[in-house]
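Notebook entry, structure prediction.
Reason for the run: the old model in the group folder had no record of what sequence produced it. Starting over properly, with the input documented here first.
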Amino acid sequence: MKNNPRFSSQIRSFSLRLHPFRKLSAFLYDRFVPRGKRLKLTDELDAVSCHQKDSTRTYYLEKISSTLFISSLMGAALLFGALYSARQNRGIPSNLITRPGYGKAALEETLNLTAAGEKESESVTIRVSPKAYTYKQAQDLLDQAETQLQKQLPGRNDSLDDVRYPLQLPQSLLDDAISAEYTISPYGVIDDTSGVIVGDLTENGTPVTVEATLKVQELERICRYAAVVFPPALTDKEQFSADLDTALRAADNSDPTSDQIRLPAYAGDTPLSWSRPKGPFLTILFILTLLLPTLFWFQKDEKMKELAKKRRELLDLDYSELLFKLTLLIGAGLTIKGAFSRICSQQEALQNSSSLPARGGKDSMQHPTERNKLPSGKGSRPESAHPVYGEIQILLREITDGVPEETAYENFGRRCGLPTYIKLGSLLAQNLRKGSSGLTALLEKEAFLSLQQHRTAARKMGERASMRMLFPMLLMFVDVMLIMMVPAMLSF
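New structure, fully documented this time:
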């Protein structure tokens, strides 16, 4: 009888010669699992492996070894990533950043800033304008820039008549199409680069004039705005931010035609150091190192539970057919053992006939008795799409090895694990012990009862299948509705 890959491939022999973690997995299993202890999946493993000896240990050795192998691979990848990231030079040589080319958008880059005396760096986004800008309709651009500057200049202030927060002095307008320079008089009240209030002012207010020179290519326009400045209330952090903004704008505007800009080394009186931030590669790799082995560990258990559940369903579906065959053969005069042997032989002949090679092939010359022999030898565990026939082969092998028939029938029921098979095994064993007649009638009654249960189970399976088809049908309905409605809506 051919092995079924859905079951036999899941409980394959554990290769101690090839697996790199064979000794460690065996040590961990023997060290932390007491001998003779029944684990969570012991029943499922016994059922799927046809009660093969050491099936539980073999399964967990394979799972532990595979988990350790995946963990070692992810750990090596994490170590390699850490070493590679550590060797990378994330600093900015000479504080130089390449400026965008002609006609390209302004460059925005986020850098790590470490100020002198500070242990931790902070993230700062800088903006680098392009080398030059092609200007068309320059006069219209200046008109738009002047309107935009009137809105931006007050900044957080309600109006220029009550200035208590820094003025917003953009160095460029209209997406860097227009450059702007500022002159604020009297000098020393407001910084003409950052707009920060720097002078010692009185509560009566100090009138100032903000003169903005808007430039585009060779054209320029001077705009003047009157403002009244009152004393500010800036914290140390706000002052540092203002000084940093001033230094960055000064660096950006120092030489607009150059290929690079030099980042400022000071913000006010505070020394600065710049570096590029590290990407999230190591963090993602670390999470995968922890997550993948864990998911693999639980996925193996879920897969084994699904196999055991599938096996129970197949056994349940084969029960009524087995009872009808037993009833027919025992009623024809065969013993219980002979009936089981005939059922097994017929199933093997059916499978062999469905898998015979072309006429004249090598297997076509094999003697029928050789094809119908029961598999023998230690560790031979036949499985098929009908697992009950594999259990019947084990039953016949036990009887051949000297196990009493009644004990073999009871073992058959227990191995199958379903109440119906346990009942059948007890019924056959009692018939041998007591020698009572009427076994055929009892089997026939049980067969008809199981047939009704089989029909009920088949109906439930059909209902579950129809429920699974409901969601795809709903998606198809939505697709049809979209195909019909979208053209109609677009036509309006």
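Summary: The longest strand covers residues 206-216.
The old model has been moved to the deprecated folder.
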